[in-house]
Amino acid sequence: MREILIFCLAKDLRYDFRKYIKQAVFLIPIISITLMFASIQNIKFINQSIFLGEMRYSSIQQTEEYEDVENCFAVYTGEIAVIDERNNVKILKNQYYCEVFNAVGSEFEFENTYFSFQNLNFDAKNLSKSEIIISYDIAQRLDVGVGDTVWLINSNGNESLYPYTVVSIMKTKYSYQNIGSEGTVLISDKSNHINLIDLYSDNGFKTFLLDSSGDILLSDEKDEASVFSLPTISTVVINIIFPILSILLITLVVARESGNLFSRKKKYISLLFGMGMPQKSIIRLLNGTELVILTFSTVCALLIYKFILLQQFIGQYVPWRFMLILMLVCLAAQIVVIHYSGKYIEMMIGQNDLCKLLQEKGD
Amino acid sequence: MIYANYCRKRVIEMESYICFNGVSMSFQTKYQRVDLFKHLDLSIHQNEFIVILGRSGSGKSTILNLIAGFLRPTSGAICIDGNDINKLTESQVSGFRNQRIGYVFQFFNLIDQFNAIENVMVPLLIAGYSKRAARERASDLLSVVSLTERRTHFPFQLSGGEQQRVAIARALANNPEIILADEPTGNLDSSTSESILAQLDQIHKSGKTVIVVTHDTTIANYATRIINMKELSQ
């Protein structure tokens, strides 16, 4: 029976290719948006304006000129990490008293690229000591996303490993420069910010923010600032209502598609039935068709989810490892959905008089 | 079981191949219960060419659907070759239909997705033939109905007569003992009808039992027996 099922499936997919593509085009945005809402609960949205100042900067006390620097962000003292890919192990290493800069891109060697580890004074309310925000660039290079754990290594050596959970990813794409403990460099377009350098140099624990207009604010002037911008939506909505609505939506959509598929294929089904194909095999054939469409739609939806919705739109890097897990979860969900859809089709076959359909004129 | 044995006995006694014993068929509409026929007794022997005549709604097609196992009677027993088909499971009925029944419909009912040869291949693949064997057999059957040159044509590329010939080839695919034809010429012009009837006659002469439901009294010329539904219901 497998041969006839594959034969019919292949023929039908080719014959109704446009209709199936239409169906996939309908399903793809629904699945991808649903996935986004279902996974939004894990993401802490950071207040990007803290990190982004849309202005041009020039360097002060900087030996090298950066003419095309576009953004300056989160200038603070504290621990800075560096990626070390030696021995095929990706780790993050602590540094002290460093500043961070962006838009220098590939001019820096990978080993000299640093990222910021969020331990700001203003942030204490929102970010626990075991949580970390990393840059998109770092997330991509380490292939880690929200919910993953990264380790920071104390500059004293490799012995002290501290695990941190990634709670968000900074949208800005930037590189970092290690200034080291010898001195501090701040890149800004405003020369009167030079006095801030002293604040860093003294004890290295003073912080300030850049607001959206590019003005630098000392932390004590803006101690209510938050790195996260989402607490306006209640956690009940995010953690319970969003996932329930997502499941409900997917169930309704798949049930609707199963109904449509049956209506479209009624005559075809009755003909196969008339030629002696058992009902079970007919259901298996329709399930197979649904599986192909759903798998195709899910793969496309997952790519849209990763590259457009999460990475482009929300600014959260989604690791490939996570995508694989998500794909497996989606496949398992599909099997459950298709099982119930099969029951639904069985019910529809029972309700429709197939021999009446055989006596009707074609579609 | 007791009834099936009784039925089998009666079949042997009567030497009939298909027998309806006290078959009643009714269905429920939205407003009322309609009795199509009550206590119908019918006996059909092997290698008969039966033509069933009757007005619309008299239950002619229902008889074919009952023989094919598409429908189950409200009461009574239908025995084919000694087996009560109402006692078979859904998958057994499907197997029976696939192996022992060839059905020709008024509206040809070819599968649009498949070309002529693939349409003939379907019942063979359902029966478990390999694709290659099914293709060879289907090709032979299309040559029997003189459609070799049209075998890769899709239904929409074929005339009504050609579609009906493909449908006949499909009905013959698994070499069934019984050929059921529901208004096989109902949608064809007179000359095409003539050739289709000649095909059915040929099938009958090859030793098969052919049962045709029609309004067309000219088919009666080919029949070994004519059954009038009006008489049956009385």
Structure description:
- In chain A, the strands form three sheets. Chain A has a six-stranded mixed beta sheet. In chain A, strands 1-8 form a two-stranded antiparallel sheet.
- In chain A, a hairpin with a 5-residue loop joins strand 9 (208-210) and strand 10 (216-218).
- Chain A is 47% helix and 12% strand.
- Mean pLDDT of chain A is 61; it is low at 47-126, 152-161 and 172-232.
- By secondary structure, chain A is α+β, with helices and mostly antiparallel strands.
- In chain A, helix 2 packs across helix 7.
- Chain A starts with a helix and ends in a 5-residue tail after the last helix.
- Chain A is elongated and about 70 Å long.
- The longest helix of chain B is centred in the last third of the chain and has 16 residues, at 190-205.
- Chain B has eight helices and nine strands.
- In chain B, the strands form two sheets. Chain B has a five-stranded parallel beta sheet, sandwiched between helices. A four-stranded antiparallel beta sheet of chain B has the order 2-1-4-5, with helices on one face.
- In chain B, strand 7, helix 7 (190-205) and strand 8 form a beta-alpha-beta unit.
- Mean pLDDT of chain B is 85; it is low at 1-6 and 8-13.
- Chain B is an alpha/beta fold and 234 residues long.
- Chains A and B meet through helix 1, helix 6, helix 7 and helix 9 of A and helix 2, helix 3 and helix 4 of B.
